[in-house]
Write a structure and sequence with these properties.
Helices cover about 50% and strands about 15% of the residues. By secondary structure, it is α/β, with parallel strands linked by helices. The mean pLDDT is about 85.
Length: about 650
């Protein structure tokens, strides 16, 4: 429409400015993974410092050369910290984002995809997300009749009450109707108002003629706390027509009469109760219901909305999107609570919730128990921020969908804000973490799978890095305690950290999703990325690797004494054992109990690392730099056995953990 306005506020004092201020005040929560990595990093710094002091102290007590012990202890402290982890995490997240891009999901924040994998509650808009947003009128109730629109066309001459209701539905409407030369019509407007225009056209009304006969004079839009819309039109020369549509109960409160047999009659308490009952019956059938009313006043009279004449109810259906019911079931199977947020009446929301197999409880925001409520009805976009904060205060990791300007604060406050790419506003897309380019929510479950896989892969890489680094510490500490010399020098320790950490760690970060990734609940928000059970397990695995490395070193000492050859055998045994251990880190289950997809990156990584390791035996200058010398075929057999046995033992002992 057109109009003149008086500027009463600018900048931050406007509604847009207030929303922008609210967005600015809202902080982006730290993702669970970043919290856990920060905590693990602090613990590893303390551990590396303790290791440095312990090894240095033991060496001094044993009488080893001071400078050599200082270099070794510092190198060991460096090796204790998995420097490759940030690289693994960053590359894994980046490749995950690229994977989602191929599925038309745009990830705007690097760690948002991982955060989606830890989401425990997802708040979903009903209109346009759960429903197809293709509305159509299916039922009309006037004081004298009930009409079910099973066919597209029906007659407006059915009754004067029906004709007046259709006129109000057309006039109290901002849709624009464009007539084409081929006879086709294009209707531009909100889905609800388009459905009303289509209803009037199906009844045979001429929309253009009606709008010409009743030119618009004023409009009062729906707003927070006012769930109705009113328009004022010129009627003949000396009168005005007031047309109202909106929440039936609110419109009903403004009515004193009802149109019956083409004559306004007093609206009694009994009639009001009958209308409220009819409204409840329609909403219970998952219909969006609008009440309609009108008034005719003198042109000079003051416009008020407390003396209207009731016309009837309009029931509008908005079918569930194809595949959404299965999608909700997928979310539930993944342990994610789904919460529907809608502006509809409670009964309508409950009926749709039943169709989607959601809980039918509705919520009052002032007395919110997030663990129980699955449906929020009569919610305005501004309420979404309150909903997000309420769930977060209950300890939930929250994802929120939205597409409007008013959704921006809630999208930013949620751990994962999901905006629609087609129907979303620029403001919503700007603050969102993830954008569904085709507005297809089904890609969100794929993003959850990707997020969980990323977390699992980072955890596998961290498990590998910590267990291999711990095995190096154990070898050095035990050798010092036993007084059998230094199995590894400082350069070898740094080489170990480079060769056995980077390539296999990166490859483990690129593992394909495990078969049951969407059949387990999301991890608790306070769960450590490496918990006590994991520490026990990786401690056992590191102990097994270090034990057989020391056994190979003991063989070398018995045959060659302390020197480069014994150190070379220990070095080769430890490196090979650690590389084979990467195969064990692919799953918590033994390889014969789980069918994993091939990881070609891991094969390549192990091939590169083994080739680099063998090159130090083949290239004399390289071997001299590392303090490595040639060894016999028998020595290589010992190295192979000492590297293979830890893999076998660690795989077999997984059965105990799996049984528990």
């Amino acid at each position: 429409g057109k109009g003149l306005g008086v500027v009463v506020a600018t900048g931050q004092h406007t509604e847009m400015g207030q929303i922008q201020a609210l967005v600015g005040q809202t902080t982006v929560p730290q993702t669970p993974l970043s919290k856990q990595l920060d905590r693990a990093g602090g613990q590893l710094v303390l551990l590396s410092s303790a290791v440095c002091l312990l090894v240095f102290g033991l060496g001094v007590v044993r009488g080893y050369e001071l400078l050599e012990m200082l270099k070794t202890s510092i190198a060991l402290a460096v090796a204790a910290v998995p420097e490759g982890l940030p690289t693994v995490a960053t590359i894994t997240l980046a490749l995950g984002i690229n994977t989602m891009r191929q599925k038309r999901v745009l990830v705007r924040r690097l760690d948002a995809i991982e955060a989606l994998g830890s989401v425990q509650t997802i708040c979903l808009d009903k209109t346009g997300t759960l429903t197809a947003n293709e509305m159509s009128v299916v039922e009309i109730q006037t004081p004298n009749s009930q009409i079910e629109l099973k066919e597209r066309q029906f007659s407006a001459s059915y009754s004067q009450e029906l004709l007046q209701l259709l006129k109000v539905a057309v006039l109290c409407n901002e849709s624009q109707v464009e007539h084409h030369s081929d006879g086709e019509l294009t209707i531009a407007g909100s889905p609800t108002e388009k459905a009303l225009i289509q209803m009037a056209i199906a009844a045979g009304l001429d929309i253009a003629t009606l709008q010409t006969l009743y030119p618009l004079l004023a409009i009062n839009h729906r707003a927070d706390g006012q769930n109705y819309m009113a328009t004022v039109h010129q009627f003949e020369y000396s009168q005005k027509l007031i047309a109202v549509k909106g929440n039936p109960l609110e419109v009903l409160q403004m009515c004193r009469y009802q149109l019956k047999d083409n004559c306004p009659v007093p609206l009694t308490a009994t009639a009001k109760e009958a209308i409220a009952t009819a409204n409840q019956a329609m909403t219970s059938n998952a219909l969006r219901v609008l009440g309609t009313a009108y008034a005719e006043v003198d042109a000079a009279a003051e416009i008020t909305l407390d003396n209207l004449t009731w016309l009837g109810l309009i029931g509008i259906t908005n079918p569930i999107r194809e595949g959404v019911t299965e999608l909700i079931a997928d979310f539930h199977r993944a342990g994610i609570d789904t919460v529907m947020v809608t502006g509809d009446q409670v009964n309508t929301a409950q009926a749709i919730a039943r169709q989607l197999n959601l809980s039918s409880e509705s919520g009052v925001l002032d007395n919110l128990e997030p663990s129980k409520i699955k449906v929020f009805a009569r919610i305005s976009p501004a309420n979404k921020l309150e909903i997000v904060r309420a769930f977060q205060q209950a300890g939930k990791v929250v994802a929120m969908t939205g597409d409007g300007i008013n959704d921006a604060p809630a999208l930013k406050a949620a751990e994962v804000g999901i905006a629609m790419g087609k129907t979303g506003t620029d403001v919503a897309r700007e603050v969102a973490d993830i954008i569904l380019e085709d507005d297809n929510l089904e890609t969100a479950i794929a993003a959850v799978s990707q997020g969980r896989t990323i977390y699992n892969n980072i955890k596998k890489a961290l498990h590998f890095l910590l267990s291999t680094n711990l095995s190096e510490i154990m070898v050095m500490v035990l050798a010092n305690l036993l007084g059998i010399g230094q199995p590894l020098n400082a350069i070898q320790l740094l080489w170990l950290n480079l060769v056995t950490d980077i390539f296999p760690g990166l490859a483990l970060g690129l593992e394909a999703p495990e078969p049951n990734v969407l059949n387990v609940p999301p991890r608790p928000t306070n769960a450590a990325i490496i918990d006590r059970a994991d520490f026990k397990r990786l401690g056992f695995e590191a102990g097994t690797i270090s034990l057989f490395t020391l056994a190979a070193y003991g063989y070398a000492l018995a045959n060659y004494g302390i020197g480069d050859r014994a150190s070379t055998i220990a070095f080769m045994s430890l490196v090979t054992g650690q590389l084979l251990h990467a195969l064990s880190c692919r799953s918590k289950l033994p390889f014969w109990q789980v069918k994993l997809q091939p990881n070609h990156y891991l094969r390549l990584a192990l091939g590169i690392s083994l080739s680099l390791q063998c090159s130090c035996l083949i290239v004399p200058s390289f071997g001299g730099l590392l303090g490595v010398t040639t060894i016999s075929w028998l020595d290589l057999v010992v190295v192979g056995i000492s590297a293979l046995l830890p893999l076998i033992i660690n795989e077999v002992t997984k059965i105990v953990g799996a049984t528990k």
